[in-house]
Amino acid sequence: MTDLTSLTLTAAREGLALGHFTAVELTQAYLDAIEAAGALNAYVLATPEKALEMAKLSDARLAAGEAGPLEGIPLGVKDMFATEGVRTTAASGILAHFVPPYESTVTARLWADGAVLLGKLNQDEFAMGSSNESSAFGPVVNPWRKTGSTQKLVPGGSSGGSAAAVAAHLCAGAAGTDTGGSIRQPAAFTGTVGIKPTYGRCSRWGIIAYASSLDQAGPLARSVNDAAVLLRSMAGYDAKDSTCADRPVPDFEAAVGASVKGRRIGIPREYRVEGMSAEIAALWDKGAQMLREAGAEIVEISLPHTKYALPAYYIVALAEASSNLARYDGVRYGERVAGRDIVDMYEKTRASGFGAEVRRRIMIGTYVLSAGYYDAYYVRAQKVRSLIKRDFEAAFAEGIDAVLAPATPSPAFGIGEKSGADPVEMYLQDVFTVTLNMAGLPGIAVPAGLSAEGLPLGLQLIGRPFDEEALFALAQVIEEAAGRFPVPARWWA
Amino acid sequence: MNMYARPADPKKLIKGATGDWEVVIGMEIHAQVTSNAKLFSGASTAFGGAPNSHVSLVDAAMPGMLPVINEECVKQAVRTGLGLKAEIHLRSVFDRKNYFYPDLPQGYQISQYKSPIVGEGAVKVDLPEGGIEVGIERLHLEQDAGKSIHDLSPTQSLVDLNRSGVALMEIVSKPDLRSSEEAKAYVTKLRTILRYLGTCDGDMEKGNLRADVNVSVRRPGEPFGTRCEIKNVNSIRFIGQAVEVEARRQIGILEDGGVIEQETRLFDPGRGETRSMRSKEEAHDYRYFPDPDLLPLEFDDAFVEALKAHLPELPDEKKARFIADYGLSAYDADVLVAEKETADYYEAAVAHGGVRRDAKAVANWVMGDVSAFANASGLSVYETHITPAQIAGLVDLIADGTISGKIAKDVLAIIIAEEKEGDPRAIVEARGMKQVTDTGAIEAAVDAIIAANPDKVAQVKAKPTMLGWFVGQVMKQTGGKAAPQLVNDLLKARLDIAG
Questions:
Q1: In chain A, is it the N or the C terminus that has fewer CB atoms within a 10 Å radius of its CB?
Q2: Which residues of A make CB contacts under 8 Å with B?
Q3: With contact defined as beta carbons under 8 Å apart, do B228 and B236 qualify?
Q4: For domain B439-495, which CATH number applies: 2.40.50, 1.10.3300, 1.10.10, 2.40.160?
């Protein structure tokens, strides 16, 4: 029997429908793979009993002809999603033993469509990071290695566990979250496909908040089609999230393979940042060429406020984070460290429960909202945000259907390489991804080639609001032209 | 009326050691919105449940929970704005007010800071010396916090989140009040308006209406002084006391050559003093910013108009109508409209049985004997067992001459103590309380008394006011049932007294 974990989600779905194997068999194959992949540290919690129980029910529904769109498909879930009765930590010490009595809307939709929960995936603490090194459970190791090297590389972040698990075939797909690039950057580092849909496409209810105006859920998958299948199940209106859009969810899978002939693709000149590697620049040109060959028109455009996006993002996101994380105070749930009085208890609890990067971000966020600094930082950052949005609106108004850009400024780097003294070096990882979170736009990262050292490189397509269909069609062109990028060696198993 | 130009009223000034002072007061009223569910969660707002029994996942600020605005609370705020003749803002914004406290689960209160739902308005306040108009600065919606309980455990504080997330309207007045009496009258009037609107029950004992009172003093005609805010005063009487003692405190400091520090103070009714809670320097930096979990609150004119169309008659209009339609004095009308239920009760009595009766007579009963009984029972008039129909019955019996006013009081006493549901006319019939209008029977009694008391007859001729003694005797003899006017007339005729 072939290794069931090698099947894409789309292929596994077909195999299950045709009865070539059962959901229990498929789930067991993934559980075995997870068991053997401890070295990657992709999961913070495997849920084998629950998985097999769900798989059995899927098999019954498959047999009864009542299969949902994801029936029997084993998935991993980033630990930002509250899962009822299953420990949910945001990879933070402060929630080390937190078991929510509720299920997030997005994951509830996945289970309602028949998917199987394999476990909870590692991530940066509270999704704050670009390398998955800030997790209280330790770093995730990228299944990719440089050619001829055994150096441990980061999988990107914050959905690093999700990306690594998808790349290493430890799940058929994963649910991640993206606040400034947390789906797209790790997807690019692991040769997988990740999409951050339009803000409001997926409900945020039950997802642990990092920065509410930027957070969005989205899938990480092995192929563009797999991502389209997953997003269709994850998306949809939810009255419990006031920022969730009340609009129908299209059949994204139908958009995969649609013609891109005549589509106008913008190449933003401001994304040619200083110090961009020749490799990335070449990849970008290659991607444009692939789209041109498929009939799209390539147009140079200007998004003049791009250079302000990163600092503005780190003000808005951290301001919101400083407030969102105030609820972790040791009073009602989560970890508590006793103190002399209430203030001492707060201070000890939060000092010990949060890691260094989270503490840093809370402090910066608190600072930028403080009396006397609010106008200089927060208000200006919001103005920049409006200008960034306007840049994109202007481009779309001129007939641009999507924007093509690199996903990351570099391929995956070594664990420990950027976690040194200057946090800004890490923040620069998000230079290409944060703009669309600021503008609320959808963006997909799709692998398009390998670096000279044999590491995957990703391109990013940015679309009009709620036009994820265009992104799936365009990304499919790149996937078909560049091929898919499976991990060359399962060195961990 | 421009309140800043309002000249100081000499009668309202406070005498200090070095001259007169004027007190300036502004109020922030926190009124709990009457609604079944909280402002941003579906949890119940019922009072008195077991601790932490009305708490949703949102109220407890569990990870990943999100607020969703309760439309009914928005409607209540708009209704209140309309009742305060205020500007309704079709777009308003919810902000986060950040601070740590154990009974504030989110670590921030969702409030409205820069863009409140309701803007400027006005409240007419009636005072014995004449009315004033108090400006409303704004009204905004916000969440209430939970309750910290410090006296149940020697080593721990406990938290009850039942109130956490309940909707409050903060109603901010302009600094238009100039005495403790005005302050009390303003809160009383505001409370009446809220209760008429049904947007807040105004129950101060339950904490459903609380006042933060801003007090400063100045020499008449001078600019405003530095104010102190007295937090969370929870009865109208205490508001008056707090203003008095705080004004005295500030005057004392100023007259001793000191300066007033802007600060937040607490009123201690037991000691009759205010105490410093925190100074301006210790004030929190709340780091307000727009709540990214909530979109700006927007509605259109049609939404407002629909609410306006169903607004009840408000106290000012009702008072005007009572004066015009029932011929009541302004004072009587004020008393009757102070509680909507009492006004309804009064009107039910006036029009009982589809017959319009003497409205002033009904008012006298409601505000007189019935009110006295209600007060003695600790109830409002409408809460007593005495029905508008019974009052109408009493008034009708007097009007048609069946009983005298004096007998009517006896009938009411019977209704109060013995026949709670009794029909006044049936009581009068059954107990033979009809007044005697048979001239012959009364004449006999009059003659007998005159004959038996020649000394008194001599006195009354010299001093006609003595007539009352004769009236009393006749009434006694007839068991109180003789028609008083008839007795008077007959006595005067027999004694030959002019009248």
A1: N
A2: 81-82, 88, 90, 95, 98, 100-102, 104, 204-209, 211-213, 239-243, 319-320, 322-323, 325-327, 329, 331-333, 342-343, 346, 366, 369-371, 374, 378
A3: no
A4: 1.10.10
